[in-house]
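Priority: low. Protein: Autoinducer 2 import ATP-binding protein LsrA. Input follows.
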Amino acid sequence: MINQSQETALTAAPPTMALQGISKSYAAVAALTDVSLEVLPGEVHALLGENGAGKSTLMGVASGTVIPDRGTITVLGETVDELTPGLATRMGIAIVHQHPAVLPDMTVAENIAVAVPERFLHGDRRAAMRGILDRVGCTAHLQDRVGNLSIAQKHLLELAKAMAVEPRLLILDEPTAPLDRDSVGLLFDLVRSAARQGTAVVYITHRLAEVRELADRVTVLRDGHHSGTAVVGDVTDEELLAMIVGRRLEYTFPAKQHTSGDEPPVLTVEGLSGDGFSDVSFTARQGEIIGVAGVLGNGQSELLRALAGLAAWHSGGIVIGGRRVNRRRLHRSSAYMPADRHHEGLMMSMSVRENAALTALDRLGAGRFVSRRREVAVVGAELAGLNVKAATLETPVTSLSGGNQQKVVMARSLLGKPDILLADEPTQGVDVGARAEIYRILREVSGSGVPVVVASSDAKELEGLCDRVIVLSRGHVVAELAGDEVTEERMIRAAIESTAHKRAEEHRTTGSRLSPVWRRRLEGDYTPVLILAGVMLLLGAYIYAQNDRYLLPFNVTSVMLLVSALGFIALGQTVALMTGGIDLSVGPLSGFLVVVGSFFFTDGHSGQMLVLGLVLMAALAASTGLVNGSLIRFGKFTPVAATLATYIALQGFSYLLRDTPGGLISTAVTDVITLTIGPVPIAFIVLVVLAFGMEFLLRTTRWGRNIRAVGSDEESARRLGVRSTRTIIAGYVVVSLFAFLGALILLAQLGIGDPAQGVSYTLNSIAAVVLGGTSLLGGRGTFVGTVLGTGLIVQLLNATTFLGLSQTWQYLFQGALIVIAALVYSQARGTGRTAESATR
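Result:
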C-alpha cells in the first residue's frame, strides 16, 4: 500500500486514461450511465461491483471493443474520438479478459503472433515467445493447440500476451479466478512490478482480500452508475460491500448442518478411478456438502465429470440414495455445473429461457410437446428465485454478465430435479452478493437430500461452505477433513506437502499413451496431407496393377488438367471455409465466367478483345466475391444464404446470356491454356505453385493469421484488433478470383459457352477441401491438403474408367472417403485432446 507522500504524488500525476461521462445502452437496457473513471500512472486501481454492474462494459470502452453512446475517452492527455482494439494496442492499452480472447484452432505460438506486435518478438522469435510464456509461469508448448489447453493455461496465455507489449495501461478482468496459489502469487508480483515501472493497472475482482493486497484506490459501480471512489486504506470491507450491493451483508456462508453420524449416507463413492484420478472414496449424509480441494489440475474436474457420467470411462462404485448407479444413469440423473460455462455450460446462441429449461422439458408439457405457458412460468419462477438479472426470458444468454450466466446454469441444474448436484468452480467470476445466493441454494439442495459435491480452487470458500473435504494430489486422495478440521490451512498443507503418489494415468497400462511430440503431430494440419498422399499412392498402384495404361502420358495430362480446373476452385473454397463460412456460388460463377468468355475467345477476335475478356471475367469474379462478402457482413446473411442467393442469380445470368450452348472457343486459346511441359500441363504447375504460395501466406503473414483467427473465434479476433469485416470480405473476393482461374481451365476443356456447366464444381470443391483436412467450422486447414483432396477425387473418377466400373462407384467411393477422412481426422485430433486432458 502507498504511503501519504506517494499518494500525494500519485494524485498529482496526469491520468494515463480518463473516462468522462460514459453511457452505453443495449436496446432498452442501460449498461452504463454517466460513469467517470481516472487511472493514474503507477497506480493499481481496483474496480468493484456486482455482476451486471457495468465493469466489463466500461473496460470494453477503455480497450476499444465497446463504442460508448456518450462520453469522452482521454489517453495520455489526448482525446480519442473512436477507440478501436487496434488503436488501443498501439497506444499501449492491454487487457486480460475474464473469458480469454484466445483462438482455439491455432497454436500457442500463432496466438502470440496475432496479439503481440512484431517489435516485441525481435531476434529469435521462438525464444522470445518462450520467454513471454515463462514470465507468467505458462508451461504450454508453443505448438500446442490452444483449444486443448486447460482453462488456467488459457488465462496465463492471455496474461502473457498482455504483459509482452509492456503496456501503459493494463486491464485485468478477474485474472485470478482460474489460477492456483502459485500462479496467483506470480501474478501479484507482476502487477506490482508493472506499477513500479509506471504502468497504470485497472484490477477487476470480486475478492476484497485481493483489493487490500494490491490496490491503491478503488472505484465501485452499481447498476451501471458510479457508486464511489476511495483510497483503499480509507474504507472498511463493510463499507465497500455496502457500496457494491447497496446494503450491508450479514453473512456470506450459510450455517452448516451438524449431523449425528448415525444417518445412512445419501452418497457413497467406493474406489472410483478414471482419467486423472485413482481410488477415490468418500461418503456424504443428508445436509452435507462435500468439497474437493487441491492444487489446480490434480484431478478435481475429472472426478466431477466422472460423477456426472461424462467421463469416457471409470471404475469403482457409486451409490446414491442406497442404489448403485452406472455411468448411463449418472449421465441422465446428475446436474453438472462446469467450470467453463461458456463452452460447456451454456448454449450461447440460445435465450435465457431455452438454456434454463433444457433439462426439464419432459416436465413442462404433455407427451412430446412443451407447454410454452408452463415453461415460462416455471423457468421465470426459478430465475426470479436466483435473482437473475435479464431484460426478458428471451434475452440472449450472451448478453448477461458472467455471474448471471452462472445463475442460469444453476437454474437449469435445479429444474432438472437431479439425483446429485456437482459444481466445478461454482462462484468463479461471480460477485459477492450472487456468491452468497449460490451458497444458500447449494445448502438448501443438500438439506433436501440431494448429494452436493463442490470443487473449488478457493480453499477459503471450501472452508466456509463444506462439511467434509477431500484433498486430491496427483489424482489421489491425500487427506479427508471433516467438521472443525475443514480449514484453509489444512487443505493447503495437505495439497502442497503430498509427494507420495503418482498420477493415476501412470498406473494405467493401456500402452496407447502418446508422447507430447506425437500428440502435436497428430493434431497438426499436415496429418491429413500425409494420409491423403498415402491413399493416393496405394490407389494408383492398385489401378496400375489392374491396367498398365493408367500411367500413359495422355491419361496423366488429362488427369492433371481435370485436377487444375477443380483445384483452383477448391483453393478458393478453402479460404471461405477457413473463415468459418462457405461459398456455394463458386460452381455457377465458374460456369457464368465461361459463358462470358465465350463472347470474347472465339475465332476472329483481336488480341485486345482477348485481353478485354480476361479483364471483364476477373472483374465480374471480384464483384461477385464483393457481393457475397457484403451480404454476409453488412446484410447479416449467413454464408449459406448469401452464397445460395448468388448461386441462383449467377445461374439466371448464364441463361440470360446463352439459353443454349454456343460460342466456340478458339483453338489457339485452348492450346495456350492446355500447354504442357512433357505430360505435365503448365496450368497444373501454376496450381501447385499457387497452393504452396497460399500455404506460405497462411502460415507466415498477418493476412493468413487473420483469416484463421476470424474462423477460429471471430469475437476473440476482434478483441485482438483483427478487422474481421475487412478480412472476410477480402477473403470472399479471393475465393471468386480463384474461381476465375478455374473457369479458364474449364473454358478450354468445354470449348464452348454452356450455361448448364460448372454447377457440379460447388459440391466437388467442398468435398476436396474436406478431404484435405480443412475444418468445416473454420480456423484450420491447408491449401496443400486441398490440392491432394482434389487429386483424390479426380483419381477416383479416372479409376472407374480404368477398372471398368460404372459412374455409380465414383460417387460411392467419394462419399465413403469423405466419411472415412472425417472419422480419421477427428480421431487423430481427439486422441491429442484426450492425451492433453490426461496430463493436466
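The two ends are 36 Å apart (CA to CA). The first strand starts at residue 17 and ends at 26.
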